[in-house]
Design goal:
Length: 259
Amino acid sequence: MEIVIVKDRAMVGQHAAGLIERTVLGKPAAVLGFATGSSPLPVYEALEGKDLDWTDVSGFALDEYVDIPVHHAQSYVSVIRREVVDRLGLDERRVRVPDGRARDLDVAARLFDEAIREAGGVDLQLLGIGTNGHVGFNEPGSSFASRTRVTALTASTREANSRFFDSVHQVPMHCITQGLGTILEARRLVLVADGTRKADAVARAVEGPVTSKCPASAIQLHPCATIVIDELAAAKLTLRDYYRYSARRPARAETGALL
């Protein structure tokens, strides 16, 4: 697990965007996992300024509210279209959001997991983190083996997301979300966070025990995970200095030596 501490929110976006840029340059038909909420917005803004060919890129969103109208400004179909597809110029037909309006939500969840497998799996999954440690809509108590499924939102998550609605009463109580088991199958995870409000959750995810009480701690189990945070979000990490030093990897010249 790599911890990258940068100056501010804008630099969080720039660094994470650079990781996505390298993924797409290395694999033009990359499969990306897109997160919603406030944390990934600087990443999408930074990607907008990059000269990348998105023609063959596919994507999967992490989650969706249940029974929110598809054209509602805060449905994740609308958010992904507005913040990702339109901003970057992706082919909307290649970007899939869990169907929170399906007649049979369990079938919709299963089909979403199957679609990820059929696409060859996610090459890079972008993640945010909630103040209670949730990733996607995997609230505390979620199984690390969980698949895409329907689940309930906690009161704290609904309160946090009420800033996008007129009131907390308008925030749906249920969602359909990729499970932790689904997320952990991505080849690379990039979690972004900024601000003082996220400091406690970041510390528990990175340095605390691996526990379902903090779903984001599952990232410790992944072989290729990068956490990109600003100084404020890093404030409660006890090993901050070590993370800063370890991120400065020495450059190696190509020797051509055979082993």
